[in-house]
Write a structure and sequence with these properties.
By secondary structure, the protein is an alpha/beta fold. The chain is built from 16 helices and 15 strands. Strands 5-11-10-9-8-6-7 form a seven-stranded mixed β-sheet, with helices on both faces. It has a three-stranded antiparallel β-sheet with strand order 1-3-2. Strand 2 and strand 3 form a beta hairpin. The two termini are 29 Å apart. 48% of the residues are buried.
Length: 487
C-alpha cells in the first residue's frame, strides 16, 4: 500500500480541471491524466468523496460520479471502510522497444540502417581519452608490485574526486570516497548496504530507468512521487516520507533524468529536512550535473544540505566522458564507505587499476573535456528541437538547460504504439513507461540529442511516418481521454 493524499494536495494537483463537458466527466478526466502521467502513484489512497467535494467547492454527487466512472474503467479500487485507491486496469499496454538486432520493415530500402534513439550517452572523446589512456599506461608500473585487488579505489583518484567536491563547496576527505565500476554499480551497493528486501525506496516518477531496475532486482519496493511540469511536489514528498518512512530515497536533482529539470535550492532544503526527520537516506545521482548547456549557475549540491551520513552522492564519468570507461564513485561518511568496502570484499567485482588511472587523467583534463562536450550538445540539442518543431508541431516539451535528452508529451497514451511503429521503420525509441512504474507515463517518449545530426534528421523523418500511422487516416490524435472513460 502506498501513502495517502489529502484533499488540498489533490486539489492542487488537479489544477484547473473544469472543461466543457459534464463536471463529473471532467473531474474523472483530470484524475485519469494524473494517474497515467505517474503523478498519482498506483496504490495511493484518495481523500473521501465528501472531503474532496468540500475542498473543491463542488457537490459530493460530482465526486461520487467521477469516482464511480474511474472504478468502472478500473482506474480506482474501493474497499468499504478503507477508502479508494489508485490502480491501473489489467492488461495496460506496455512495450519495450525492439532490440538492436530485431527485424523491422525496411521502408527505406535495402540499405536503410537502424537509428537508435534510446541511447543517452556520447561516444568517446577520442583526443582526451586517447591522451589519458597513453599517460595512464605509463603510470601503471607503480602499481605492478601490488596484488591489484582494490575495493576502495586508487588513492590518487579518490583525492581527485574529493577535490572536485571541495571546489563545488562540499569539503570532502578522500576517505569519504569509494570508487566503483560506474553509477549503477554504486547505486546497487548502497541499496544492498542500507536497505533490506521488501523495504520501500522512494523515487520520482519519471526517473532513471536503471535505478528502478536495480531496486526491483534487489527485491526492494519502488515507491514513486510524480513530477509536475514545474518540478517536485514538495507536499507529496513530505507526506510520502512522513507516512512510509522509506529506508532510501533516490533523486537526480541536477538535470533530472529524463525531464531535464533542476531542483531549486528551497526544494532541496525541504526534502533534505523531511528525509532527515523520517530517518531516510537520500541517494543523490549527480551523473548529469556537469552537463549544463546554458551557463546558468546551479543551486549548491544536495550534499551541502546535510551530513554525509544522511546524504549519499553518486557520480560517474559515463555521461561526461564515456560509458565504456566504467568509472564511478560514492561520497558518503567514512563509516558508510568502510561498510561498503566490507560489502564489496564478499565477492564483488574489484576496480580495475588501469581504468582508474585513465579516469584520473580524464579528471585532470576535465575542463577541456566539458567545454568540448557542451559545445557538441548545444548544437545537437538545437538540431533536435528544430526537427521536432517542424515534424511534430503538436508535441509539447521544454528545452532543458542541460543533460542529454528531451522529455516529450505526445498528448495521448500513444507511446507504446509509436515505439512499435517506429521499430518497424528501423527507429528505436523508449516510451515513457520505461521511466516509471505500473504502466504510467505512456503519453511521453524520451529522445536523446547525443546522436549525430544526420541520424537525428533521419530518425525524425521515419518517426514522422510512424506517428502518421499511429494517429490514423485523419493524421491527428482522436479525442480526449475522457472519451475513453465514457465508452
Amino acid at each position: 500500500m502506498s501513502y495517502s493524499l489529502t484533499a488540498p494536495q489533490i486539489t492542487r494537483m488537479l489544477g484547473e480541471w473544469r472543461a466543457a463537458g459534464p463536471a463529473y466527466c471532467d473531474l474523472a478526466e483530470a484524475f485519469h491524466v494524473l494517474i497515467t502521467d505517474g503523478r498519482l502513484p498506483v496504490g495511493a489512497r484518495l481523500p473521501a468523496e465528501r472531503t474532496l467535494a468540500a475542498e473543491c467547492g463542488i457537490s459530493r454527487n460530482t465526486v461520487t460520479a467521477a469516482y464511480r466512472l474511474l472504478r468502472e474503467k478500473e482506474y480506482l479500487a474501493s474497499d468499504r471502510g478503507a477508502g479508494s485507491f489508485v490502480r491501473l486496469p489489467e492488461g495496460v499496454p506496455r512495450v519495450d522497444p525492439p532490440g538492436p538486432d530485431a527485424p523491422h520493415t525496411d521502408l527505406g530500402g535495402p540499405a536503410a540502417r537502424t537509428v537508435d534513439l534510446t541511447v543517452a550517452s556520447l561516444p568517446a572523446p577520442s583526443v582526451v581519452l586517447g591522451a589519458a589512456t597513453r599517460n595512464a599506461s605509463g603510470d601503471l608500473d607503480q602499481y605492478s608490485h601490488l596484488h591489484g585487488y582494490d575495493v576502495v579505489g586508487a588513492p590518487e583518484l579518490r583525492r581527485a574526486i574529493a577535490a572536485g567536491f571541495a571546489r563545488r563547496g562540499v569539503p570532502t576527505d578522500p576517505d569519504q570516497i569509494l570508487v566503483t565500476t560506474g553509477a549503477d554499480h554504486a547505486l546497487g551497493l548502497v541499496v544492498r548496504l542500507l536497505s533490506r528486501p521488501g523495504d520501500a525506496v522512494l523515487t520520482d516518477s519519471p526517473t532513471y530507468p536503471h535505478a528502478l531496475d536495480i531496486v526491483r532486482r534487489l527485491n526492494r519496493r519502488p515507491l514513486t512521487v510524480g513530477l509536475g511540469a514545474d518540478g517536485w511536489n514538495l507536499d507529496v514528498w513530505e507526506s510520502a516520507l512522513r507516512q512510509e518512512k522509506p529506508r532510501l530515497a533516490y533523486l537526480t536533482p541536477d538535470f533530472h533524468h529524463p525531464t531535464g529539470l533542476v531542483m531549486p535550492a528551497a526544494a532541496r532544503s525541504v526534502i533534505a529536512d523531511a528525509s532527515r526527520r523520517s530517518g531516510t537516506y537520500l541517494v543523490v545521482d549527480e551523473a548529469m550535473r556537469e552537463l549544463s548547456l546554458d551557463g546558468r549557475p546551479l543551486p549548491p549540491p544536495m550534499a551541502s544540505y546535510s551530513t554525509p551520513g544522511h546524504i549519499i552522492t553518486i557520480g560517474t564519468l559515463s555521461k561526461t566522458c564515456w560509458t565504456g570507461l566504467r568509472v564511478g564513485w560514492i561520497r558518503a561518511s567514512k563509516n558508510i564507505v568502510a561498510r561498503l568496502a566490507g560489502l564489496r570484499r564478499s565477492g564483488d567485482t574489484p576496480n580495475s587499476i588501469l581504468t582508474q588511472l585513465i579516469g584520473l587523467r580524464v579528471l585532470e583534463s576535465n575542463d577541456e573535456l566539458l567545454e568540448e562536450r557542451r559545445e557538441l550538445l548545444v548544437k545537437r540539442r538545437q538540431v533536435l528541437v528544430d526537427l521536432l518543431r517542424r515534424h511534430f508541431p503538436d508535441w509539447r516539451f521544454t528545452t532543458p538547460g542541460g543533460g542529454l535528452s528531451l522529455w516529450v508529451d505526445l498528448g495521448a497514451r500513444l507511446g507504446p504504439a509509436l515505439a512499435r511503429a517506429a521499430g518497424r521503420r528501423g527507429v528505436r525509441i523508449y516510451s515513457g513507461g520505461r521511466f516509471g512504474e505500473d504502466g504510467t507515463l505512456d503519453n511521453h517518449i524520451r529522445i536523446p540529442y547525443v546522436a549525430d545530426e544526420e541520424s537525428l534528421a533521419e530518425g525524425c523523418e521515419r518517426l514522422a511516418e510512424a506517428w502518421a500511422e499511429v494517429c490514423g487516416p485523419r493524421g491527428q490524435v482522436q479525442g480526449r481521454v475522457v472519451t475513453q472513460l465514457r465508452v
